[in-house]
UniProtKB/TrEMBL annotation:
Gene3D superfamilies: Nucleoside Triphosphate Pyrophosphohydrolase
Pfam families: NUDIX
Residue span(s) of domain Nudix hydrolase: 11-144
Keywords carried by this UniProt record: Hydrolase, Magnesium, Metal-binding
GO molecular function: metal ion binding; pyrophosphatase activity
GO cellular component, one term: cytoplasm
Name of this protein: Nudix hydrolase domain-containing protein
Tree of life domain: Bacteria
UniProt source species: Methylorubrum extorquens (strain ATCC 14718 / DSM 1338 / JCM 2805 / NCIMB 9133 / AM1)
Length: 152
C-alpha cells in the first residue's frame, strides 16, 4: 500500500505525536510503533492537541493511552510530517503531526487502548520501512542516528 501525493496547499490540522525510543543492551536504538485502529497500518502514538496541555505533554499522554509507554519526553519537536486522516464520515483531513522524542522508561501492562492496537519494537530502519508516510519514515531514520538520552 502506498500513499498518494499529498496536496499540501490544503490547510493542515495540527496533531502531536511521539517517537518512542529505547536503548538496547547492545547500545543500539529501538523505536516503538503501534497499529492504527481502523486500517491497522503502523504509526506512532499521536492525537489532537489537548486544551490546557503543552504540545509535548499531550504527545506523552497519547503515548500512554495508545501504547502504554511512559518516559521522558523532549520539549522540542524533532520534526513534523503530513498525512491524511480518514474521519468517521469518510472525509479525509490533512494533518500536520509535530513529533516529540520520548525516551521510554517503562512499558505498562494496562493502559486505555490495550487490546485495540498492536505495539512492536523495531530497529529505526525497520520502523521507517513499516510506515507509509514518507515524512515520518525520514524522521524515524534521522532519530535512529541520534542518542535518545540527548536533551530534546
Amino acid at each position: 500500500m502506498t500513499a498518494g501525493p499529498i496536496d499540501s496547499s490544503r490547510e493542515a490540522r495540527p496533531q502531536v505525536g511521539v517517537l518512542p525510543m529505547r536503548r538496547t543492551p547492545e547500545g543500539g536504538t529501538e523505536v516503538l510503533l503501534v497499529t492504527s485502529r481502523e486500517t491497522r497500518r503502523w504509526v506512532i502514538p499521536k492525537g489532537w492537541p489537548m486544551k490546557g496541555r503543552k504540545p509535548f505533554e499531550a504527545a506523552a499522554q497519547e503515548a500512554y493511552e495508545e501504547a502504554g509507554v511512559v518516559g521522558r519526553v523532549g520539549k522540542q519537536p524533532i520534526g513534523f510530517y503530513l498525512y491524511e486522516k480518514r474521519l468517521k464520515n469518510r472525509d479525509a483531513v490533512l494533518c500536520q503531526v509535530k513529533v516529540f522524542p520520548l525516551e521510554v522508561r517503562k512499558q505498562l501492562k494496562k493502559f486505555p487502548e490495550r487490546g485495540q492496537r498492536d505495539a512492536r519494537w523495531f530497529t529505526p530502519s525497520e520502523a521507517a520501512d513499516m510506515v507509509i508516510e514518507a515524512g515520518l519514515a525520514g524522521l524515524i531514520r534521522a532519530a535512529g542516528n541520534r542518542d535518545p538520552k540527548r536533551k530534546g
